[in-house]
# Entry
Amino acid sequence: MSKIYTLYGNNADQAIDLLGLKWLFFWRCIDPQPFTALQDINLDIRRGERIGIIGRNGAGKTTLLKLITGTSQTTAGELSVAGDINALMQVGIGFHPEFTGIQNIRASLLYSPLSTQERLVAEAEIINFVELGDFLDQPLKTYSLGMKARLQFACATSIKPDILVIDEILGAGDAYFSAKSAARMDKLTGSGCTLLLVSHSMGQVLQFCDRAIWLEDGRIQDDGEARAVVKRYEKFTYELSKRAKLTDVEKLSSVHSSNWLRDRTREALATSMPGGDGGDPSNRWDVEDSPIRIEHTSLHDQEGEEASYFQAGKGLSVRMTIKANRTGHFPCCFAIVIFAADGRMLGRHCSDWHKFDLEEGKTRTIEFAYDPLMLGSGHYFFSCAVYERLDLRNLSDAKWYDLYSRAFEFDVAPDENDPIPQFHHPCQWSLIEIEKNELAQKEPKES
# Structure
């Protein structure tokens, strides 16, 4: 399917053209320009899939959601949707600003297929979830953006829809409510609801989605497993930003010039797509003509053997070997970032600064160790890098020699005694006051 908009120079030209009155204004040059928002989109989205739609501003993400929700029609092609849709496209849409919060809740529930008793239960659940207190008796127009987002999200997710569409609304609200929203999203998606999520937060996409669709210039650039697509998209935006700085794209006067830059970057990153060699070059964000490269990275257990499966409470180490591509004096800081399977960053570890005098072809190996490993059972992955310049207070100024993004994986076995926790932290228990006749016991005595 495709979607094409017609752009006019001003509102008067648009009205004249739509009313067919050009002949009355023959002296006026009305030259509408077509704009292709989406072109040749071909997708199958199955029941229960959790899909993140990513891409830069203007890529066509919101247009795609509007077509799916039926608020806009395709210019060409066909679209079929099976199931009830709840859409959160823009904060405040569908709510009346003069109504109070409680009135808007009741009005939204009237559109649901719930019985009167079920609506009362849902209303009480929404009130408890949003935690707006007395503000629910105030008009919606007095609400802040975050308060509106709370109310709209709670109403849209109070009933399990067949398809839930969310466009950036999870970014509104404070950290506390974002955590509550994430928990509710997990519950909804775990119950079989189909999720379509548009977000500029790659962490949200990895947390909630199994599949990702990357739109660029109105076309599907990539479609596949969420982490793989996110890595390629992040590399594309990094390369585009780097090339823009090199060509001083901000001073280019023509849109065609910026399109040229984008197309050249896309061509240069063609190797980042999965190839026949089984590798994925998008893992690596190396620097052209870098004097230092990461030659080898490996994981080892507490006996020093290479492994990918570890036991909590025992050792895990990562060895990173760098190689000099030319002779020189090189300041190096090594970094490792650990992620959970859902994309959340769990920890960032940076080494001290090391200064190496290396001849071309010479190597150095550094080891990072968790001893003991305190992560709970689960699947993890990590990024590793060697930096020439790094200030954690200003990461935008960082400069690396070589970087692997979310490239390495490992698993942690469940603890036999307590398999649930996400991490196991050493601790000490002690009684502050104790009677003389009381003794600490490992097992309670039978009565």
About this structure: The longest strand covers residues 399-413. The radius of gyration is 28 Å. The chain has nine helices and 17 strands. The domain at 284-413 is CATH 2.70.50.60 (Coagulation Factor XIII; Chain A, domain 1).
